What does this fold into?
Amino acid sequence: MQAPAPDASRIPEDDILGATIVLITCWYKRQEVVRVGFWVNNTYNDEIPEGEEVPRPIDLTKVTRNVLADKPRVTRFNVEDWS
It folds into this structure.
């Protein structure tokens, strides 16, 4: 599955790096059937001298997204009416 990256201008700069999730939900007749979540870690890929922080504004070309695709969290829900 592929999707465009989120609009970084809508994400607070303090939330760009670190852990987050990708959540996929499937619905049938207004009932949630399954939810699949994946942990994502966003890291800055440029050398930063020890004791210094990531430069601001964050250069998004130096951010890598690592999706833990091999460890999904799957939740299934009972659907009352499949017909």
Notes: The beta strands are 18-28, 31-44, 63-67, 73-76.
